[in-house]
Amino acid sequence: MRTLGLMTVVALILAGCATMKPSDFTGKEPKLVLEKYFEGKTRAWGIFEDRFGNLKREFVVDIDGTWDGKRLVLDEDFTYADGEKDRRVWRIRKINDSRYEGEADDIIGIARGELSGNALSWRYTMNLKIGSRMIKVAFDDWMFLQPDGVLINRARVKKFGLELGTVTLFFRQIGRDTNGAALNALPPAAE
Question: Given Cys at both, which of 48, 136, 156, 168 links 57, Cβ 3.0 to 4.6 Å?
Fold first, then answer.
């Protein structure tokens, strides 16, 4: 009986160490179709927190996406709260209904993505600009499509296996509903 108890404790500890897998989201709705979501204009609001949870950067990203049936190009313009601007252009190939590969100038090698249900797991290595220097970091990036077209993105940033911080973004499609149909202009916000 004591062995069974010990095995149960070990199993619970190992289960706590398990990481998310795309298959954990099979059948979850709304279904994310990457090329459909990002075709057209999208805006994201993001933050970077260091490993201690301290807010280090805030930014907005305006994205112009084009899909030609095989390749999704995301032209991203970043504006940081301190006035700095940056640009990244992703070139993403759809391998099949659940797998993607992507490249950008600051990505080292190939980014690999796996999609299931409402979630995308995206892993890549990047040359990240920190001040005037570049450092090589690994991204463990997850996107989750929510109702009303909100896409939540959370990425853990690591160097030598140690977590440096977390990037969190919220995406909204501009001028479209979740089915890609044009929206009427929203009424002005109440004052």
Answer: 48
